[in-house]
Design brief:
Shape: globular
Largest sheet: 7 strands, parallel
Radius of gyration: 28 Å
Low-confidence stretches: 1-36, 189-206, 355-362, 636-642
Structural class: alpha+beta
Strand content: 25-35%
Number of strands: 37
Mean pLDDT: 83
Strand order of the largest sheet: 11-14-10-15-17-18-19
Helix content: 10-25%
Amino acid sequence: MHRGIAPRSAWIAPLTLALAALLLGTAPGARAASEPHDRYRTAPARPADPLAASAVTRLRNEGTAVLWVRFLDKGERDEASFQDAVRAAASQVNARARARRARENGGRFVPDWYDVPVVASYVDGVASTGARVRNVLRWFNAVTVEADEATARRIAALPYVASIDPANRSRAIKPVEVGTVREAPFGAGRAPRPPDSGNVAQVWGGVSLSKPSDYGNSIGQLTSINVPAAHDSGFSGAGVILCVIDTGFDRFHTSTSPLHKIAEYDFIQHDGETANQAGDTSDQWSHGTGTWAVSGGYWPSVLVGPAYNATFILAKTEYVPTETHVEEDNWVAAAQWADSIGADVITSSLGYSDFDPAGNGGNDYGKQQMDGRTSIVSQGAVIAHRRGIAVCNSMGNEGSLGVTSVTCPADADSIISVGAVDPNNLIAGFSSRGPTWDGRIKPEVVAQGVGVYWAVAGSPNSYSTASGTSLSCPLVAGVATLVREAHPEWTNYQVRHALRSTADKAGAPDNNYGWGRINAIAAIYNSSLGGPVFPYPFPLVSPTHLSTLNTVPITLKWRRSRDPQLADAVTYEVNVCTVSPAQCVYTTTTPDTQLVVTANLAPFTQYEWYVRAKDPALHARESRDRFRFTTGNITGVPQSPPPTAPKVLLAQSRPNPVSNGSQIDFSLNGAAGVVPVTLRLFDAQGRLVRTLLDGSPRTVPTAATVPWDGADAHGRLVPSGIYYYQIEAMGRRESKRLVVVR
């Protein structure tokens, strides 16, 4: 167990207790009263000897060891400098991470101490002692180093060092059984058709993949958790970033090569290559490739994962050749990295408990430490969760040890810990059990972890089956990605609650199954949280990403979306923005799936365009893609578009839902002068409630705003419910829905 320290009095030392207290028993969607790092506190006196006795024991047993070096402060001297540091750090948080964290905090992005970097001169000072710095961990105001005893004592003499502790060892939750490797049959797994076929649309660095008609040998593991139904309903992970933390990855396997990958990092060798490289054994990338394919692989008629249209980032953290190597700090560094990119979900099939006995220095985690607050990796998982990332982690394959055989970070509260069942939905004997040492039920949920079909690294078309909670976890993470896609407004608590409350043992959870086997479609539509499902995801079509355009006007095209619950039509908000500086130069709304842009476009300029679909209640879904195009030697003066047929454009009422009154906007494209217009309001049964414009004898302009005071034809306020307003003009008729809430 690591020794506690306090870089600020009663601040860092109780970090784990504070986090646990804030999270334990918190209802879905609720927020804690305050953040653990919300104000400046004076740093305590430096301890006489920061070097822990356990670190000395490890060093004398092993010669060189991995150590955690924590600092007293982050350079702040008083309240003002603390606030300055937080504000400066906030400017470095990217827009996606800001939005994700704001969702967890009632719509407000609140920067905090965790955003503040470790003081660079402190890191340099540690490095100057001769220690090899492995990871810089701002969440813990620490670095991890490889050092011998003499070097460790030089580090301990530095005036800003608070403590030096030995790191704990880790291991991947390896499969308990792997089936025979076999090649996919000839002709299976047809590659996606090229973009001009209409099957896929180019996106940033990848493709938007179409729903497969054949799931091949993965059909059982997906059907058991109702994933095909979620795919049929339009969800496939689009627009969600899923981080895979594992051993390494074969990006050229047939199941992974079509996927949209935007970042990767090797936290072992500290470079940008997560495939096998010098120093790796041949099977280094096997576990990671398999779990990645289970969560989101795409090779139709062979293997498909739940979140095949997600955006992936890949973190290589686990060194395969020996389990005496230390990777706990790598996991935390990877979670920090994922946070900085804006990841929404983490899938991790790694665990930390007791390890190889040789030279362990007594630093294994035992059952007493499985309390969600002792291990560094569990603390890191909770911090990631509080920053809006849904952390999914395997329970472990220690079921033979009985109760409290959970490994960390699966013991962490508020994350989604995953056990394994067989194809008949019976708990697998190897699946680790709860409760945690402090009595919380674990796992949260289960999925198939016996005989799961996965990809075999190193041979592009090789597949096999495997068993373990390392296989059930990526299935659940893939479904969490679908839920996040369907409900971008939900907090992490709500995503977790939806998965648990719709699982098949939700009425009587226990420490074998947790809340039971998940149900993807039920988590999206049927949880007790209720609320809307936003319009269906949709891709952009043309002009394709990185096009060069030499003439104006330009025509933007995209696929159709709709309201998934009431099948209502949606309207589209189209945005065209310059890339540098980032500034929108054209925004408009249309009911169609294409738009002729007549705005002046500057020559030799890069633009970005995207679309938002809005349902009648103004819930907005952004397009899966943001495409960029560059203008050539254009004049910037738009050409006149060809004549179009008269068109009635009816906008969504404002506001909607409405309590007292609303406004309805419309315009008549192609109309000359003024034309007769009829505007009526109907209830959900089609009965006329009120006529707002009767079309005769009055005439109205071709664009107008019509107020409605919330009353019927007799002046009485209408009751709560769904209503429809309908316009008739120029021989055309359009209608939209509005909601009245009293």
